[in-house]
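[step 3/7] inverse_fold.run input=structure_tokens len=449
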């Protein structure tokens, strides 16, 4: 190295032995060489060749003066380890700070899973002191409309309170012994919020007070009072004594009005599709016969061969029409109604009779009479365990029967709950079930806050 060479030359000059002859060069040459050696021994820190690969790299020292401007950093291509860290392989174990995980937003499904489940349903009294509330229905705003069979009144419950003034009072027949005459059915139009239409089915008296006919009227709501009563269907037959008069009504997904009509105590008429008794009838909202009715555009019969159809409801998801039917001291039935089908009465009852008739989905046996009445298929919004189940009232015991029915119409399970359900059952806008006995309406659902 240059530094070591300079030292060696200096040392050689110092240790020449006395008496040795002088080398053969001139004094001027010697002095010139000596000047070069002295200059080399002094060194020049600013020289470009001052640093070599074998020399240690000095630590940089910054010198800052008031007169010097702040130095501007520039990229350095050197391999100084103090300034440019070497790249780290993925597998190298390096102690680095662990980043905090970013907050994860819950999606709708996760949020729904964390929502508290509805409280267990409880039975409570909703309205009491009423007279045969055999049909219950709800307006979209939560008001309950119901009928009192033997007084001819339509009543309203608003915000949990039974209003003193009836919505309407119809002219009806209710003489002694005529237990199934009066106001028998009630339905609200699907567009009730816009048109206010309320439909009622009732038995009309003659001048002497005896039954003359049955008819369907349409009322228009003005707040909680009815105006503009209009007859849309009249001349419907009735039983001579008391029974099998039908009268339950509901609107289907197609916007048409479906009506039950019993055999009016004459079982032979049920097998005659030209006789409207013992049938499910189908009308437009104005009381006309729909052009696509299964037996023709002049025949209101939608299905026939029935004895005493009572409750009626449409499945909230499939749109299927289900009814309960009272048999003769047994053979009570649950039927899935299909357009134009013959359900066999009186040739078939329960599961007995010819296979040429449409069979019930469920039935009791002979002498096992329960008297099925109102029917509902809850959505399960407030009572999840009942969602999609077929529920109907048992007149004789006052319980509510529950059937779990598969998509292929097999009854998978049958249970009941003791909730005082003699006449009707209907799901309210709050998801609770409302059930009626002869003088009281009950609520079955999560407790009210």
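[step 3/7] decode complete -> sequence:
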């Amino acid at each position: 190295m240059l530094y070591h060479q300079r030292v060696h030359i200096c040392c050689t000059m110092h240790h020449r032995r006395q008496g040795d002859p002088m080398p053969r060069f001139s004094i001027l040459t010697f002095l010139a060489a000596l000047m070069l050696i002295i200059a080399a021994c002094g060194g020049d820190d600013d020289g470009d060749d001052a640093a070599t690969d074998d020399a240690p790299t000095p630590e940089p020292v910054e010198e800052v003066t008031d007169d010097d401007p702040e130095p501007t950093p520039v990229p350095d291509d050197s391999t100084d380890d103090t300034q440019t860290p070497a790249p780290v392989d993925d597998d190298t174990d390096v102690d680095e700070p662990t980043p905090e995980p970013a907050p994860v937003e819950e999606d709708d499904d996760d949020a729904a899973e964390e929502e508290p489940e509805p409280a267990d349903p409880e039975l409570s009294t909703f309205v009491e002191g009423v007279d045969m509330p055999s049909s219950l229905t709800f307006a979209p705003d939560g008001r309950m409309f119901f009928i009192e069979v033997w007084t001819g009144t339509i009543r309203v419950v608003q915000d949990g309170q039974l209003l003193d003034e009836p919505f309407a009072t119809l002219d009806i027949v209710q003489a002694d012994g005529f237990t199934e005459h009066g106001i028998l059915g009630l339905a609200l139009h699907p567009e009730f919020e816009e048109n206010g239409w309320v439909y009622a089915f009732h038995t009309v008296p003659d001048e002497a007070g005896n039954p003359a006919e049955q008819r369907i009227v349409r009322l228009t709501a003005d707040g909680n009072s009815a105006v503009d009563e209009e007859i849309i269907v009249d001349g419907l037959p009735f039983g001579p004594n008391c029974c099998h008069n039908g009268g339950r009504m509901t609107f289907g997904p197609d916007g048409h009005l479906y009506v039950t009509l019993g055999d009016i105590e004459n079982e032979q008429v049920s097998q005659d599709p030209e006789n409207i008794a013992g049938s499910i009838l189908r009308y437009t909202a104005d009381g006309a016969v729909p052009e696509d009715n299964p037996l023709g555009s002049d025949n209101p019969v939608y299905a026939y061969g029935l004895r005493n159809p009572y409750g009626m409801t449409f499945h909230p998801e499939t749109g299927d029409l289900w009814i309960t039917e009272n048999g003769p001291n047994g053979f009570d039935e649950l039927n899935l109604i299909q357009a134009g089908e013959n359900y066999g009465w009186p040739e078939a009852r329960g599961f007995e009779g010819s296979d040429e008739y449409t069979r019930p989905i469920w039935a009791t046996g002979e002498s096992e009479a329960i008297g099925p009445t109102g029917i509902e298929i809850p959505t399960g919004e407030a009572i999840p365990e009942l969602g999609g189940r077929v529920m109907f009232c048992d007149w004789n015991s006052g319980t509510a029967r529950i059937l779990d029915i598969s998509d292929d119409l097999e009854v998978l399970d049958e249970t009941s709950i003791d909730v005082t359900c003699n006449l009707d059952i209907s799901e309210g806008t709050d998801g609770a079930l409302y059930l009626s006995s002869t003088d009281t309406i009950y609520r079955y659902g999560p407790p009210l806050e």
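[step 4/7] annotate
Residues 123-444 form a domain with the Neuraminidase fold (CATH 2.120.10.30).
The mean pLDDT is 83.
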